[in-house]
Amino acid sequence: MTALGWVAQPTVFPWIALVFGLCIGSFLNVVIHRLPKMLERDWRAQCAELEGREPTQGERYNLVVPRSRCPSCNKLITALENIPLVSWALLRGKCAGCGARISLRYPIVELAAGLLAAYAAWRFGFTVAAFGAMLLSWTLLAAGTIDLDTQLLPDDLTLPLLWAGLLFNLFGAFVTLKSAVLGAIIGYLALWLIYWAFKLATGKEGMGYGDFKLLGALGAWLGWQGLPLIILLSSLVGAITGIGLMVFTRHGREQPIPFGPYLAAAGVIALFWGPEIVRRWLPLVG
After folding, report:
1. How many helices (H) and strands (E) does the chain have?
2. Exposed, middle or buried: residue 167 (CB in 10 Å: 0-12, 13-18, 19+)?
3. Helical segments of 101-226, H only
4. Nearest CA to 226 among 283, 260, 273, 284?
5. How is residue 101 annotated by DSSP?
6. 189-223 per-residue burial string, b: 16 or more CB within 10 A, e: under 16
7. Which residues are paired to 94 by β-bridges?
8. Sign of the torsion angle spanned by Cα atoms 127, 131, 134, 140
9. Predicted local confidence at residue 124, as pLDDT
10. Region of 60 on the Ramachandran plot (φ > 0 left; ψ -120 to 50 alpha; else beta)
């Protein structure tokens, strides 16, 4: 048996995907932390150029450099301190240098990325669809978390995700290319129309443009047929969460609640269980 044949075995592939997904989860933590800061730097530089000022030349900052450091004591994080899940557990969730607490979200993101990859490998087998499902779920995890933190859905994630969906469906990974193109168009326009209807009726902006692009990207992956379920699930979860925040945390009605995390969660659900939900549950609702 060749090495590729061994990896492709149903009893092996999910475990390899799990380990690889944990490593990707560690990288996603970097993306979640640094991408908004990179965008802010770019915006400040653009503003300086428009005002005729020389942009401030700071330390080179991207997803690769500088090396990760503790935000409290500035200690460099070594390779042994950056092993997914294991390092956080051995360090008991604290920095090895100053003892500052490391957020629980880091291992949660790593574990989520690993489990999503393993489930995709088990659900689709060693196929193009499995690798596409991993890429989609990882990107949704990063985008949803960034939106939760900053109320931003970066074009650097949503637009490549849309094109990747069309590329995978060029080979029919999830839906036909025609369904994918229609999904991208309808997904974007659906929330765009809701946005303008709400703004014309109330004079306020009910959502951001990033939400349009994210739903368009989900349409490119799952086709126009998956959009009603995604909108239904995201709206339902968003409404329940919003009510819960207002009741239990005194979250004001005027305080914005990002919609991206709910779209991302609905996209993952539709990716893995959409057809089953439509087949089994929606007739009961009807």
Report:
1. 11, 0
2. middle
3. 105-124, 128-150, 155-170, 177-202, 209-222
4. 273
5. B
6. ebbbeebeeeeeeeeeebbbebbbbbbbbbbbbbb
7. 101
8. negative
9. 96
10. beta
- pLDDT in single tens digits along all 286 residues of the chain: 677 778 888 899 999 999 999 999 999 999 999 999 999 888 887 887 787 777 777 778 888 888 888 777 888 888 888 889 988 888 888 888 888 898 899 999 999 999 999 999 999 999 999 999 999 999 999 999 999 999 999 999 999 999 999 999 999 999 999 999 999 999 999 988 888 888 888 877 777 889 999 999 999 999 999 999 999 988 888 777 766 666 666 655 566 678 899 999 999 999 999 888 878 775 654 4
Closest CA to 258 of 115, 111, 132, 146: 146
Phi, psi of 94 (to 5 degrees): -135, 150
Task: With CA atoms as reference, report the closest residue to 191 among 227, 240, 151, 141.
Answer: 227
Rounded Cα distance between 109 and 269, Å, is 17
A 10 A CB-CB count for 4 gives 8
Look up residue 183 and give its two tokens.
């999904």
Are 158 and 191 within 8 A, CB to CB? Answer: no
17 strand-pairing partners? none
Of 74, 148, 141, 77, nearest in space to 111 by CA = 141
Structure tokens at 120: 């995709």
Helix/strand/coil percent split, the chain, to 5: 70, 0, 30
